Amino acid sequence: MLGYKDPKETAKVFRDGWLMTGDLVKIDNNTGLLYFKGVKKRMLKFKGYPIFPRDLEEILKNHPLVEEVKVVGEDAGTLGQQPVALVKLKEKKPNVEEELLNYVNSRVALYKRLKKVYVVDKIE
User: Fold this and answer.
1) Would you say residue 2 lies in a domain?
2) Helical (H) or strand (E) element with 99
3) Do the Cβ atoms of 88 and 68 come closer than 8 Å?
């Protein structure tokens, strides 16, 4: 890869001839093989699109009923991981899940939409 059209952006992602993708790998010194260990950034892939949980969490944190939130990926088979939210409420309210789904999903692109909201007592 030669880089981006913008030299500043190219400089951000190349170091010592390596493209810094954010993938975490281990190099086997005996074989020279790379082993994939994970991703540096917290990111989900759903239907091929990257989704950053932090973006959805920031929106939910602005809802007046939300005390704490964590967005995680729920297995969707070959589609990847669909975003779902674990939400701790400031005060209990029946059937709030749909309200929170609509709150987030009306503010994001179609591919980023939350699929479910789970109201929980504690987030770890």
Assistant:
1) no
2) helix 96-105
3) yes
Q: Which residues are registered as beta bridge partners of 111?
A: none
Tens digits of per-residue pLDDT, 64-104?
999 999 999 999 999 999 999 999 999 999 999 999 999 99
53 in any annotated domain: yes
More confident residue, 3 or 107: 107
Three state DSSP letters for 30-84: CCCCEEEEEECCCCEEECCEEECHHHHHHHHHCCCCEEEEEEEEEECHHHEEEEE
What is the rounded distance in angstroms from the CA atom of residue 83 to the CA atom of residue 74?
6
The predicted pLDDT at position 124 comes to 83
CA within 13 Å, CB half, 79: 12
What pTM did the predictor assign? 0.68
Q: Look up residue 103 and give its DSSP letter.
A: H
Measured distance CA(28)–CA(32) in Å, rounded: 5
In this structure, are 54 and 111 located in the same domain?
Answer: yes
